[in-house]
Design goal:
- The mean pLDDT is about 95.
- It is built from ten helices and no strands.
- Helices cover about 75% and strands about 0% of the residues.
- It starts with a helix and ends with a helix.
- It has about 290 residues and is mainly alpha-helical.
- The protein binds fe (ii) ion (2 copies).
- One fe (ii) ion binds near residues 53, 86, 138, 161 and 165.
């Protein structure tokens, strides 16, 4: 907690938003996508990323129930305040630039927050494993979205949010590291369940499956990135799953199962990467 507070820098959403590019929306005015041309996949990513941030009340509810008061409570409240900045800055940027349809966005927010669908891991240690993976996944998705907006201001907004997600990731990753030192077997069982069941937190968003497929095709977030940039660095390099010793029988079984799952994922990831490189090659040749 102290490390987080020392490394998190204060920043202001209003300083990132290009207000001078905005103008009033007349009531009933129809959104015109031509005012901010963008590939559909990037609009899908912005829609999903923002609605995911909007669902904060329910993440708070889940995590607060799991960890309760004390320093845990302090962390959850601080984390909530930081996360809320993300929806503020992304929404203001999108509204001012007209990069996505504000009516569809608001209806999507109402549906998402009314539905309250969030991942609910069973135990505190599973929750820690899940949020470590999810914060890093979110960092990758925000960064890649920012790179494709084609607007330096939008890039900075998404990079700023991604930098926060990175600090959240480090916080949770190192808590899991500490937990491994205390009870490796319990943590390995949690890793097995959370890696095999992993879902991004936006599953309650309208049309999520189609939007996730479009986001994957654009190379913003797909299984290959999930494997190479999330699972390998966290589970294998930082938590050193393969090298842990003295595990219980249950934990040994869990480790074997999750490593086998990762081997299968690696071959899917490799095929996806090859296909994407081939497609990029075609685009360059054309
Ligand atoms: Fe966030
Ligand atoms: Fe975060």
């Amino acid at each position: 907690m102290d490390r987080h507070l020392a490394s998190a820098k204060e920043w202001f959403p209003h300083e990132y938003v290009p207000w001078s590019r905005g103008r009033d929306f007349e009531p009933g005015e129809e959104w015109d996508p031509a005012e901010f041309p963008l590939p559909d996949a990037v609009r899908d990513a912005l829609f999903v990323n923002l609605l995911t941030e909007d669902n904060l009340p329910y993440y708070f509810h889940t995590i607060d129930n799991m960890f309760g008061p004390g320093v845990w409570g302090q962390w959850i409240r601080r984390w909530t305040a930081e996360e809320q900045r993300h929806s503020i800055v992304i929404r203001d940027y999108l509204t001012v630039t007209r990069a996505i349809d504000p009516v569809e966005l608001e209806r999507g927010r109402m549906a998402q927050v009314s539905g309250a669908v969030v991942p609910e891991p069973d135990t505190p240690v599973e929750t820690l494993v899940y949020v470590a993976l999810q914060e890093l996944a979110t960092r990758v998705a925000h960064r890649n979205t920012g790179k494709l907006i084609g607007d330096p201001v939008g890039y900075e907004v998404m990079a700023r949010v991604a930098a926060d997600e990175n600090l959240h990731y480090l916080f949770y990753r190192d808590l899991v590291g500490e937990a491994l030192a205390h009870d490796a077997s319990a943590v390995v069982v949690a890793i097995d369940r959370q890696v095999r069941d992993f879902e991004m937190p936006g599953t309650g968003i309208h049309n999520f499956t189609a939007r996730a497929a479009s986001i994957a095709r654009a190379g913003i977030y797909d299984l290959a990135l999930h494997y190479e940039q999330v699972l390998v660095p966290v589970v294998l390099r930082h938590w050193k799953l393969e090298e842990l010793e003295g595990l219980s029988d249950d934990a040994e079984e869990a480790r074997t199962r999750v490593l086998a799952y990762m081997v299968r994922l690696e071959s899917v990831a490799r095929r996806l990467s090859e296909r994407r490189q081939a497609k990029d090659g075609e685009l360059i040749d054309a």
